[in-house]
Fold these 3 entries.
Entry 1:
Amino acid sequence: MYGDSDTKQAAHRAAPMLGDQRVVPFYDPEKLAGTAVAAVLGGGDSDVAWDVYLFYRQGDMWLNQPPEPADWMHQLSMCSWADPARLRCGEELVAELQRSMERFFR
C-alpha cells in the first residue's frame, strides 16, 4: 500500500481477504521490508515493492534480507524494475494467487 491508504488499519482489513489463516497483516511505515523485497526482485536501492504477492518454500527464513521467493506476482505497472511477465490484476490476479496457494500450501 502507498499513499493515504497506507495505514496499519488498512493492512489488518486487507489480510482476511485472502481467506487463509496463515496470512498475517504486516505494516511497515518506514518501508524497510518493501525496499528489501524490491532489491531481491530486481529493483534498485531506492525502489520499494508494494502490491506484491510472495510465496516462499517451507523453511525459507528472512534473516538479513528476504530470501528469493518461490513464486511471486505484482501490481506494479508503473515500476520499470518489476518483471512485466509477473504483472497480474483483477480476476487474473485472483486466479494466479489461488494457483500459487494450491501449489505451495497443500
Note: The longest strand covers residues 52-55.
Entry 2:
Amino acid sequence: MAEDKTDSGTLTEHTRSRLGDARRALLRFHGALLEAERLAYERMRGRLGGSGQFLQLVINDPWFAWLRPVSEVIVRMDELLESEPPATEEDALGALRQAASLVRPD
C-alpha cells in the first residue's frame, strides 16, 4: 500500500478515498435531482421523447442550468481520480470543498 504523504503536492490515499466516496455519493444525489427535475419538467411541458431528448435538455435548457455545477464537479472528480500524472492533494481538496459548497444549505 502506498504511504500517505503530508505535502500539498502528492495526493494521499486517504484523500483519494474521500474523493472517490464523495464522487459516488454526489453521483447518486445528482441522479435523484435529475429524476425529480425530469418529472417536474414533464408535468409542466409534457412527456419527453426519450433519454436522448432528456440529455439535450439537461445540457442546453435553462430549466436544468442549476444542476450543471453538480455535473461539472463530478467530471472534475473523475478527472482527478484518473489523471496522469496523478492529481495533487491541493486539487483533490479543492474539488471536495467545491462539492461541499454545492450541497451545503446557504
Note: The first helix runs from residue 13 to 45.
Entry 3:
Amino acid sequence: MYLGIDLGTSSIKLILLDEQQNILAQHSEPLSISHPKPLWSEQNPDEWWQATCRGVQQLKKHYNTAFSALKAIGLAGQQHGATLLNASDDILRPAMLWNDGRAFAECKTLAAKIASHAKITGNRIMPGFTAPKIVWVAKHEPDIFKQLAKVLLPKDFLRLKITGEYATDMSDAAGTMWLDTYARDWSDDMLNACGLTRKHMPTLFEGSDITGTVTADIASSWGISPQTMVVGGAGDNPAGAISVNVIQSGSAFLSLGTSGVFFVASDTYQANPKDGLHTFCHCIPDYWHHMSVHLSSASCVSWLAATLNESDANRLMAEVVLDIDSKSSVIFLPYLSGERTPHNNPHAQAVFFGMTHATTRADLTRAVLEGVAFAFADGQDAITQAGIKINDVSVVGGGSQNVVWGDILASVLQRPLIYRSNRDIGAALGAARLAWLGINRCDPQSAFVSPPIEKIIEPNTEKIDFYAEKRQKFQKLYHCVEDLFV
C-alpha cells in the first residue's frame, strides 16, 4: 500500500493506493486561511500537521488492515510557501503562502542584487515565490530573521514531522528562486542575496527518491511499519501532472483549482521569464515543466456565488447552460488576488465591465468563466512564444466538473480539451504514485497509465471569432485600468 498526502491551500487530501495503483480510499480535511492585512495570505503550519493526523486516523479507522501494510508515503503540496523554523524546529511565524503578495518591493531589491537571476532560475522574481518573502522578513521582522535556522516548503514541514529529516524535491525547490533550475542544485548566489546559505536549506532529491523512514513515534501512533519509506514527492502541480501521466515532452494539463495553471512537460530547458512563464524542474529526473499561473480560477466562481448570496455555485452554472447561445458583452478581469502570468502584478484587481440594466446573473457568471478562459489564453501565448510545443491537454481540478466551462475554454484556447476520470483528485494521487515508484524503481515514462478518457470537448467553430474579438477587449481593458490599481 502507498499513501499520498497533498497539502493544499483549502484542505489536506489523502489517497491510499494499492500495488496495482488502484485508489483504495481517499479523505480530506479542511484548512483555514488568514488574511490579516491587504495582500497577506498566511496559514499556521501546526494546523497542517493536525489536519494530516486527523486524516490518517480516518483512513486507519476504515482501512486499518490496508493501512498497516503501508510501504511508502509520497508528499505533495502548495508551492512557494515560507515555513520558518529556529534551531529547535519551533515555528517562528505563520507560513506565508503562494498567493501572498506583500513582497513586491523586495522582488525589485532582489532582482537588482542579482542581475543574472532569470538566467539562474529561469523565472522572473514574483512576490508569491519564497525568496522575496524571506527578504521581506529580514527587513520587517529582523528579530525573527535572526533566529532563522531552516526554511521549509509546506509539504516538507510535514516530512520533518513524519521523518525528522530536512528534505525537498527538485520541483518544489525550483519555485523558491534559490535553485539553479537547469543544474538542479541550490544557487549560492541567490541564497547569499537573501542573507542565507545552504545550511538554511533542506537536502535536494528527485520526486521518487527515498528521503527517509518514518520515526518510531509516527510508526507507533499511525500503526505502520517503522520501515515505511517517505519519497521526495512534488509540488502540487508536478504531482498533479503525475496523476494524469503528463510526463512526456509536450503533454499538458490545464488545472481549474483555486488558482489556474497551464502546465506543459518538457525534456528540454526553455525559459520565457519576460512573459511571466514559470520554468521549473519536473518531479522526475532530467525533465522540466513550464507553467502559466493565474492566481484566481475556480475561486472566481465561488466568490461570485458568495457575492450573489447563492449557496450552490452549480445553480449559477445551470443558468449559463440555459442561456448557452448567449453572446453577452460583459467582461470580467479575474484578478481577485493579483496576477502572475503574464502581468506579474500583485496589485491587479477584478473588474466587471459592460453591464447594463439588462445584465443578468447568467451574464455575470458567463463573464467570469470567459474571463478566466481569457487569462488562460494569455498564459498559452507565453508558453508558445517560448517555442514550447503543446500536444494533448487534459483538464483537472474542481472546475473540470463543469462542461459549459469546458466549451468556453476549448473555444477560447482554440484546441480540444481532454476530460479524464478521477480528474478532481490530482496531487494526492500523484504523490501516492511517486511513493509507488520509489519502491518499484521502474522507468517513469512507462510506470503510469493515463486515466480513462470520459470525453473530449472540441472548440465551437461558431464562437471562435467572437471570443477572439472579445479577448482583445479583455486585454485592452486591463491596460486601460492598470494605472488605477493601488
Note: The mean pLDDT is 94.
